[in-house]
Amino acid sequence: LTRAAVIQFQVNYGISRVGAVGPITLAKMNNVINAGYGIDVYAPTIYNISVQKTTNSATFNWSTTESARGKVYYSTSPFFRSEAIGNFTSPSISGGLTMVENTLQSSKSITVNGLQANTVYYYIIEAQDVLGNVSVTMQSTFNTN
């Protein structure tokens, strides 16, 4: 766990990922501690999700516990998902389309147009904070009108 934490710190501050505390990592740790900075390893929490749908579109609204970028994955069939394989990486979500909103803020709204009428859609929402911490929702569904 300590090695993983050191690697996370090194990734976070652009230091070579060696997993050990050498002179460069130690100097950066001292700098961070002396400056009073904390190390953010927490992903934003996604909450208050709502989907307003029409015949051919859906607007996804949600909030996060901190400023974050937003992404909506959507498809007419279930997604293929797998865990993230490294620090500050998104999980693998495939089998659909994606809409991205890159503004860092805690309230998000993404509209997807060109949907088929009277169709079941699957969706997953992703939030990523400025340091690269990522959270995703469980897969959910909605029906267009």
Reported for the largest beta sheet, the result is:
6 strands, antiparallel
Termini separation = 49 Å
Elements, N to C (H/E): HHEEEEEEEE
Please mark out the parts with pLDDT under 50 across 5 or more consecutive residues, or reply none.
none
What do the pLDDT scores average to? 90
How much strand content do the residues show? over 45%
Give helix % range: 10-25%
Number of helices: 2
Tally of strands: 8
The structure class reads alpha+beta
Computed over alpha carbons, the radius of gyration is 19 Å
Overall 3D geometry? elongated
Topology, please?
Layout: H1 2-12, H2 23-35, E1 46-53, E2 57-75, E3 80-82, E4 92-94, E5 97-113, E6 120-129, E7 134-136, E8 140-143
Antiparallel strand pairs: 1-2, 2-5, 2-6, 3-4, 6-7, 6-8
Summarize the structure.
By secondary structure, this protein is α+β, with helices and mostly antiparallel strands.
What does this structure look like?
There is one protein chain. By secondary structure, the protein is of the alpha+beta class. It contains two helices and eight strands; from the N terminus they run ααββββββββ. Strands 1, 2, 5, 6, 7 and 8 form a six-stranded antiparallel beta sheet that branches. Strands 3-4 form a two-stranded antiparallel ribbon. A hairpin with a 4-residue loop joins β6 (120-129) and β7 (134-136).
